[in-house]
Design brief:
Layout: E1 2-4, H1 5-8, E2 14-21, E3 25-28, E4 31-35, E5 40-50, E6 53-67, E7 74-88, E8 95-97, H2 98-108, H3 149-156
Antiparallel strand pairs: 1-8, 2-5, 3-4, 4-6, 5-6, 6-7
Length: 162
């Protein structure tokens, strides 16, 4: 959706827009991330500070469809983004691309770590079972990775020379 700011400020200096836009996919770090099916709710407050500048305060409400970083389960994560922008108006008019603005703010506020729950146990590196769903018997108390068997002996002997 594109907003012509010249038309928006034709008769007034303060304008509030509330829009619902369709959900979309956004490319983040080379992979496409989908939003939840609910529409993106945009609340935008524009204030024309002078003939060349507009101050924008906005909020976006939407949800991400993500994958847990530990167990690979699907996770729906709601997002409430608040932001401010100073927009410089050009002499020949200024068009604000709302879709691009949503994309920029979504990327800037993308979560760095996604967990289905704070105490997620992840998946077993040996059998691949989701440890949140069922117990895994791959790592028994006495089992040692063969690559670290020498270190285990060292600790058992309390670093005594043989």
């Amino acid at each position: 959706m594109k907003i012509n700011l010249d038309e928006l400020f034709y008769e007034q200096d303060d304008v509030r827009l509330v829009e619902e836009l369709p959900a979309r996919g956004i490319e983040v770090s080379g992979s496409l991330v989908e939003m939840t099916a609910e529409p993106v709710k945009a609340e935008l407050d524009f204030h024309k500070t002078n003939e060349q500048e507009v101050f924008l305060r906005g909020q976006f409400h939407f949800g991400w469809q993500l994958i847990c970083d530990r167990c690979m389960a699907n996770v729906s994560k709601p997002m409430d983004l608040s932001f401010t922008r100073d927009i410089l108006l050009e002499e020949d008019g200024h068009i604000l691309d709302l879709d691009e603005l949503i994309r920029e703010e979504a990327i800037l506020n993308f979560p760095t770590k996604v967990l289905c729950k704070e105490e997620c146990l992840g998946i077993c590196p040996d059998c691949g079972k989701n440890k949140n769903d069922e117990a895994c018997e791959c790592h028994q108390a006495g089992a040692v990775d063969i690559r670290f068997a020498g270190l285990k002996e060292l600790f058992e002997n309390n670093f005594k020379e043989v």
